[in-house]
Amino acid sequence: MAAPPLLIKDNVSSVAPQADTTMSVFNAISPAASGLAESFQALIESAVTASGQHEAVEKKIEDTAKLLATQDIQHNAKLHVIQVLLEDLLKECAIESLRQEVEEQVNQDLDRLVDEEVTAYLTDKHLNQETQRTLDGRKLELSRERRNLHNAESKRANGLLRRTQNKPSPVLNTFYMDSGEVSTHFPKTLADLQELDDGAARELATDYGIAIEADDQYTLVINRILIFFGLRYQCVKRRDGTFDIDTD
User: Fold this and answer.
1) Cβ atoms 176, 155 nearer than 8 A
2) Which residues pair with 245 in a beta bridge?
3) pTM of the full predicted structure?
4) Which of 12, 14, 154, 187 could pair with 192 as two cysteines, CB 3.0-4.6 Å apart?
5) Backbone phi, then psi, for 71, in 5-degree steps?
6) How many Å is the maximal CA-CA distance in the chain?
7) pLDDT at 71
8) Residue 8, CA distances (Å) to 5, 20, 35, 89, 110 in order
9) CA 187, CA 196: separation in Å to the nearest integer?
10) Is 166 left (phi over 0), alpha (psi -120 to 50) or beta?
11) In whole angstroms, what is the distance from residue 157 CA to residue 164 CA?
C-alpha cells in the first residue's frame, strides 16, 4: 500500500509569529517615515510664503531641504536593509518550522508503515506455513515419483544385460533407496554382485527393503536381489560347493 502524500503547511505567519509582528510594524511605519520629508517640505513652503520669501530664509530653507532629502535617502536605505533582514528572518523561521513539521510527519508515516508491514508479515507467515507444508508434500511426492521412475527404467535395462565371453562384466544400472541415494553396497557390475558374501548380500537387501529372513540361505538372498534389480539371472550352488550366477 502506497503512503499518503505529506501535507505541509506553507503559511509562514503561523511558524514565526514574532517575526510577522515585526514585519507588520515595519510596514506600518515605513510609509509614515517616507512621507515625513514631504510633509516638512510643505510646511516650510507655507512659512516662506507667509514671510514674503526673504532671500536669506529661502537659502536656509534650501539647505535644510537638501539635508532632509539626504537624510530621507539614508532613511529609506536603512529601511530597505531592515526589510531584507526581516524577510531573511522570516524565511529561516519558515524553513526551520517546515523542516520540523516534515520530520514529524515522516516519523508518523514510518510508524504507520511499520505497523502495516508487521501485520502483513504475520498474516503472510501464517499463510506461508500452510503453503510451505503443501509445497514440502509436493516435493516429497515428486521425489518419490522420480525415484520410482528411475528404478523402473533401471530394472528394465538390467533385464537386457547379458554376459559376453571375453568382454568385461556388464555394468548394473543403479537403484535409489527411499532416501534418494544409491546404497554403498550396490555392486557396480554383475561380477561384483556374484562376489558378495552372505553379510554384504544381507546388508544390500536391507538397504533396499528386500524381504529376507535370518535363516534364509545365501542362494535365496542373492536370488531375491537379482529379481529385485530385474536381472534375468539366478544363483546356483555347484557340486563343489561354490556359487555361480547363471541365466534363468
Assistant:
1) no
2) 235
3) 0.47
4) 187
5) -65, -35
6) 168
7) 66
8) 9, 19, 40, 20, 16
9) 8
10) left
11) 16
Q: Which of 36-45, 58-67, 186-195 is least confident?
A: 36-45
- Output the CA angle 7-11-13, nearest 5 degrees: 145
Is residue 187 within 8 A of residue 239, CB to CB? The reply is no
What size, in residues, is the chain? 248
What average pLDDT does the segment 64-91 reach? 68
Give Cβ neighbours of residue 79 (< 8 Å, ≥ 6 apart): 26, 30, 33, 34
What contacts 155, CB < 8 A, 6 or more positions away?
173, 175, 229, 230
What are 173-179's contacts with CB under 8 Å, separation 24+? 174/150, 175/150, 175/151, 175/208, 175/228, 175/229, 176/147, 176/150, 176/151, 177/207, 177/208, 178/147, 178/209
Cell numbers of 12, please?
509562514
Residue 171: DSSP 8-state: B
Tens-digit pLDDT profile for residues 90-128: 666 666 666 677 677 777 777 787 878 777 776 776 667
Q: Sorting pLDDT into bands at 50, 70 and 90, what band is 235?
A: confident
Q: What is the mean pLDDT of residues 163-190?
A: 91
Is residue 207 within 8 Å of 185, Cβ to Cβ? yes
Q: Could you count the other beta carbons within 10 Å of the beta carbon of residue 196?
A: 20
CA distances to 138, 153, 184 from 130, in Å: 13, 35, 37
Whether residue 47 is predicted with pLDDT greater than 60 in this model: the reply is no
